[in-house]
Amino acid sequence: MADTVPTAAPFVPETDDLDKLREAAQCCRGCDLYKEATRTVFGEGPPDAGTVLVGEQPGDIEDRQGRPFVGPAGKLLDRAVADAGLDRSGTYVTNAVKHFKHKPAAPGKRRIHESPNQTEIMACRPWLVAEFSLLHPRAVVALGAVAAKGLLGPSFRVTKQRGIPMPWPESAHHPEDFAGEAHDDAFVLATIHPSAVLRADDRDAAYRGLVDDLRVVAEQLASRR
């Protein structure tokens, strides 16, 4: 018998309530990442958010607190969003993968993340699709390679296609999953993950690049009002 393909689909309830979706996600066993994670880290923000920011996966602090983008990368993202002219309070933040994948660490030491593989990205995708079914954003931002692959498919390369607005959901991987779940003129844009700024040799240049990409989002939103 062929091996079963990991998927969160059996754990995703039919609901029109984000809080119920978030509660159900805590019991997800769709792939093995839950075994070493503290908890599921679900999305957070207003249901009527005009912009959805999709990261890769929770980090060490997010895993401990159960909230997305509350660590150093999240604080940098908050600053970049503000510097780009976007309203952080009007954004919804989530991750393509809801559990923290990490390398073992000594007691008391910060755990270092490992990038989820394509199987894990696709296993968690039903949660992302379910979130979008309850959100109707005008702008979708993919932060980093894992988020871009989860939204736009495994062939998408952030290094080559970052900062370019594309129609949403036509550009999405399996666009039928997101059909009808966004405004008619909604768009998606990919950029680097804020953690890449923290790892960069030239942080100032990397930060400016992130802000420039997010500024494109702000300008597009303003022009489409």
From TrEMBL:
Example GO BP: DNA repair
Record keyword Iron-sulfur present: yes
Xref: CDD domains: UDG-F4_TTUDGA_SPO1dp_like
Keyword Acyltransferase belongs to the record: no
Record domain Uracil-DNA glycosylase-like: where: 42-215
Keyword terms, alphabetized: 4Fe-4S, DNA damage, DNA repair, Hydrolase, Iron, Iron-sulfur, Metal-binding
Homology family: Belongs to the uracil-DNA glycosylase (UDG) superfamily. Type 4 (UDGa) family.
Protein name, per record: Type-4 uracil-DNA glycosylase
